[in-house]
Amino acid sequence: MFKEFKKFISRGNVIDLAVGVIIGGAFSTIVSSLVNDILMPVIGMLLGGINFSSLSITLNDAQIMYGAFIQNVLDFLIIAFCVFLFVKFINEVSKIGHRNESKKETKEEIQETELTILKEIRDVLKEKPKVKSTSSKSKKNA
Predict the structure, then answer these.
(1) C-alpha distances in angstroms, 120 versus 7, 113, 130?
(2) Which fold has domain 1-83?
(3) How far from the centroid of its chain's Cα atoms is residue 110's Cα?
(4) What ranges do the domains of the chain cover?
(5) pLDDT at residue 116, rounded to an integer
């Protein structure tokens, strides 16, 4: 069982996932600070000084903090949007790299094709029997 666990944990996908979770946690903290410390005060000011985190409803003895829920939804949307922008950026960068690689491959393929065609022409010309030119005789007769 230990050997299987060692094999499982040493696979690249597990390590990549662990790194992603750790970076995601740190990224979440940064985005939460952005939302709580920068965006929400501005949104609250635009909405007449409303502080979302203090919004609540009291039913009997229970206090429902729906403002905290609104805050968490906004955090999620902003984090999702930031991740979307990051993934979009990475995809664009990788497309540029693939375009450059494909241009190099295309140029090499064209050169190889041209060389092949030239070799085929050379081979055909070697196999063809030499024919005497009749154009010089027809000029003398004219």
Answers:
(1) 54, 11, 18
(2) 1.10.1200
(3) 29
(4) 1-83
(5) 86
